Amino acid sequence: MYQRILTGAVLLGCAVTDLKCRKIYKAAAAGYLALAVLGQLARRTATVAQMAFGLLPGIFCLVVSWLSGQGLGYGDSVLVLGCGLSLGFWPCMETLFFAFFLSGLWAVILLVLRKAGRKKEIPFVPFLLAGALIQWAGGV
Predict the structure, then answer these.
(1) Contact at 8 Å (CB) between 56 and 8?
(2) Which of 7, 69, 129, 137 has the highest CB neighbour number within 10 Å of its CB?
(3) What is the DSSP code (8-state) at residue 137?
(4) How many other C-beta atoms are found inside a 10 Å radius of the C-beta of residue 32?
(5) CA distances from 115 to 86, 112, 127, 130 (A)
């Protein structure tokens, strides 16, 4: 429960700054990652292997960030690292699935309505927050 509250609070705060400033503060992302590690160590429910496995979605996002020239920002990727560590591999994967689906749907809507072009940047953290909320509600 602690991890969900932490994740929700951090994603909500970062979603607001991502919408307003198109920026993820490194200190917030790094602090979330540190608190996720401390939370897992304090609870002692996850093994080191499970924690490492939980990092895989975030590592994948970091690689995508690097390969795409930050098409997906590094801050977003560090938040995904924290989600994977905090929530676990499969909940993080479900959250990412919903986040990518919703952001893609939003991009299509913007294109169809001619409100944006193909190169328009959209903030990702609000979709990550929405994905987490959907995943916590039981998914689809």
Answers:
(1) no
(2) 7
(3) T
(4) 24
(5) 36, 8, 19, 22
Domain count, the chain: 1
Distance between CA 63 and CA 131 in Å, rounded? 21
- Residue 10: name the closest of 78, 101, 99, 88 by CA: 78
- The helix/strand/coil state of 10 is helix
Residue holding tokens 């929530």?
Answer: 87
Q: What is the pTM of this model?
A: 0.88
**pLDDT tens, position by position, 34-59:** 998 888 888 777 788 888 899 999 99
Give the range of the structural domain holding residue 123, as residue numbers without chain letter: 2-136
The structure tokens listed for 20 are 């307003």
Residue type, position 40, single letter: Q
